[in-house]
C-alpha cells in the first residue's frame, strides 16, 4: 500500500482556520424590559449591552450594518418595538447611533437611591465565599455613584459579611482594609475546607457510653444567671433531666448499665440553655439608646444579664437582618410553657461614643422590652467594674486597732530579742557593681533611701570604712509615683 502524503504547512493552516470557523456560538438571550426583577432597567441593559459586545467580537462580525441588524434582532421584539418609536435613529449602517439611542432611552430610568438601597441590603449568603461576595458588591457599587467605592465596600463587608472574626478585626484595627479582609477570609475558608475531613473522621470514631450510679456523686449542671428586661433568669445546661421530678428516680435504676451511645455532635453542643424566670422588677432601671441594624431604640442595662435580648417590635424596625435558629428556651417561673425565641443574630451595636459586635436574641412578643448584657455594656464603655477595689469594714477590728495604737503604729520592730544569723564562712564575699538608676526616678530613690534610714531599716556606711559584701539595689516604680527599693542579694 502506498504511503499517504504528509500535509504541507499551508494545508495545516487552512485546516486550523476552517476548524476555528466551524466553532458555533450560542445566540444572545433576548432583553426583557418589562421583567420584574430587583435590578434596575438601566443596570440590566448595560449588562446586556456589554455581553452583546463580547458576542459580536467572538462572532467575528465587523460590518456596522450587520452589527446593527444583529443588535435589534438579538434584543428581542419588545426592544425593536421601543426602537421604532425613537427619533433620529440613523441609517441601517449606523450601529453606534442605534446603540446610543437605546442607552439614552434606558439610562434615565436608573434610580440611584434604589441602587444604593440594594447595595446596603446585600448580605453574604451562607454558601458564598468572601471573594464572590466582594465581586457582587463591586458590581452593584458601579451603579451607586459612590465618592469612595473602596470605603463603602469595606463597610458593607463588615456589616453584611458572615465572618465575625473579620468584623471584630476591622472594628479593632482602622488600617484593616478590604484587601486584608479578602486575604483573611481566604485563609479562614481554606482552613474550614481542610478541617471538614477531620471532623468526619472524629464523628466516625468509637461512640461514648455513660454509666449511672444512683449513690455516687452526680456532676452538677452548669448554671448562669440571665435577665430579660428587668427579669432575672437562671439558665441550666441541657445535661439537666427534662423529665418531671417524680420520674427522675426511675431514670437512675439499673446501676452500672450502659446508656445509648452519645454522638460527638451532641456532646459538643451541650450549651443549650433553659431559662427560668425568678422575679420581675421594672423599677429604677438604667436605659441607654443604641443603634443596631439601622434602627435606634432604648435598651435596659442589667449587670446580671449574660445575653442581649430584644422584642419582636424592635426587631421589625431593622432592615436586612436575618435570624438564625437557636435552641435557647425560657420558662416563666412556676410554669411549663417556655418563652418562644424567634432566633438570634450577630450585628454591630453602636452608641454615641463606641461600637462593638454582639449577639442578640429576639423574643416573640410586641412589647417585651430590650436588655443589654454586662459584657456588651462593658465593650461599649457604659459600665466599668472595679473588682480589685473592694473595701470591707469590721467594727471589732476597728476597736482593737484603736485600743492598741502604739503596737500598730509605724514599721513595727521586735524589741528585747537577740537574733543570730548563721553565715556560711566558706562563701567568699562579693562586691557586685552598681546598677544605673534612670535619671527621671533618682529623686524618688533618694527620698526612699532617706525614709528607710529615718525608720532605722538601713544605716549609712562610713566613707572610709570598707564592706566585704556589696549588693546593688533594684528600683521598682509604684502606681502612686513612688518607688520600691529591693536588694539584689546574689
From TrEMBL:
Region (Disordered): 238-266
Residue stretches of biased makeup (Basic residues): 238-256
One of the protein's GO biological processes: proteolysis
PROSITE patterns linked to this entry: ASP_PROTEASE
GO molecular function: aspartic-type endopeptidase activity
Protein name: Retrovirus-related Pol poly from transposon
Organism: Paramuricea clavata (Red gorgonian)
Amino acid at each position: 500500500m502506498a504511503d499517504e502524503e504528509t500535509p504541507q504547512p499551508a494545508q495545516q493552516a487552512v485546516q486550523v482556520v476552517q476548524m476555528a470557523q466551524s466553532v458555533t456560538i450560542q445566540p444572545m438571550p433576548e432583553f426583557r424590559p418589562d421583567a420584574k426583577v430587583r435590578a434596575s432597567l438601566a443596570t440590566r441593559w448595560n449588562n446586556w449591552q456589554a455581553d452583546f459586545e463580547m458576542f459580536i467580537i467572538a462572532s467575528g462580525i465587523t460590518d456596522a450594518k450587520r452589527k446593527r441588524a444583529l443588535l435589534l434582532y438579538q434584543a428581542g421584539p419588545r426592544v425593536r418595538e421601543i426602537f421604532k418609536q425613537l427619533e433620529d435613529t440613523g441609517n441601517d449602517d449606523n450601529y453606534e447611533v442605534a446603540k446610543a439611542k437605546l442607552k439614552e432611552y434606558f439610562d434615565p430610568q436608573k434610580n440611584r437611591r434604589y441602587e444604593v438601597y440594594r447595595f446596603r441590603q446585600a448580605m453574604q449568603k451562607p454558601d458564598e465565599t468572601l471573594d464572590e461576595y466582594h465581586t457582587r458588591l463591586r458590581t452593584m457599587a458601579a451603579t451607586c455613584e459612590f465618592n469612595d467605592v473602596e470605603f463603602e465596600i469595606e463597610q458593607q463587608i463588615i456589616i453584611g459579611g458572615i465572618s465575625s472574626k473579620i468584623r471584630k478585626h476591622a472594628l479593632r484595627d482602622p488600617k484593616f482594609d478590604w484587601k486584608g479582609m479578602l486575604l483573611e477570609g481566604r485563609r479562614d475558608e481554606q482552613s474550614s475546607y481542610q478541617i471538614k475531613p477531620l471532623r468526619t473522621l472524629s464523628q466516625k470514631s468509637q461512640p461514648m457510653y455513660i454509666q449511672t450510679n444512683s449513690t455516687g456523686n452526680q456532676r452538677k449542671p452548669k448554671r448562669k444567671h440571665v435577665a430579660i428586661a428587668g427579669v432575672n433568669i437562671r439558665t441550666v445546661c441541657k445535661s439537666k433531666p427534662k423529665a418531671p421530678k417524680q420520674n427522675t428516680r426511675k431514670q437512675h435504676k439499673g446501676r452500672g448499665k450502659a446508656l445509648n451511645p452519645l454522638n460527638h455532635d451532641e456532646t459538643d453542643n451541650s450549651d443549650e440553655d433553659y431559662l427560668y424566670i425568678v422575679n420581675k422588677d421594672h423599677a429604677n432601671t438604667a436605659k441607654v439608646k443604641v443603634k443596631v441594624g439601622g434602627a435606634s431604640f432604648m435598651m435596659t442595662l442589667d449587670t446580671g444579664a449574660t445575653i442581649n435580648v430584644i422584642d419582636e417590635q424592635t426587631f421589625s424596625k431593622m432592615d436586612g437582618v436575618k435570624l438564625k435558629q437557636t435552641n435557647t428556651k425560657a420558662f416563666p417561673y412556676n410554669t411549663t410553657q417556655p418563652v418562644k425565641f424567634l432566633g438570634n443574630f450577630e450585628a454591630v451595636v453602636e452608641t454615641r461614643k463606641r461600637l462593638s459586635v454582639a449577639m442578640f436574641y429576639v423574643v416573640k412578643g410586641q412589647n417585651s422590652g430590650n436588655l443589654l448584657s454586662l459584657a456588651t455594656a462593658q465593650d461599649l464603655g457604659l459600665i466599668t467594674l472595679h473588682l480589685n477595689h473592694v473595701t470591707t469594714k469590721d467594727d471589732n477590728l476597728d476597736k482593737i486597732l484603736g485600743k492598741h495604737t502604739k503596737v500598730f503604729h509605724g514599721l513595727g520592730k521586735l524589741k528585747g530579742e537577740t537574733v543570730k544569723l548563721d553565715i556560711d564562712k566558706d562563701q567568699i564575699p562579693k562586691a557586685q557593681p552598681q546598677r544605673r538608676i534612670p535619671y527621671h526616678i533618682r529623686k524618688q530613690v533618694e527620698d526612699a533611701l532617706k525614709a528607710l534610714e529615718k525608720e532605722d531599716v538601713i544605716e549609712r556606711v562610713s566613707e572610709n570604712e570598707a564592706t566585704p559584701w556589696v549588693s546593688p539595689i533594684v528600683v521598682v516604680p509604684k502606681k502612686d509615683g513612688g518607688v520600691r527599693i529591693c536588694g539584689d542579694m546574689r
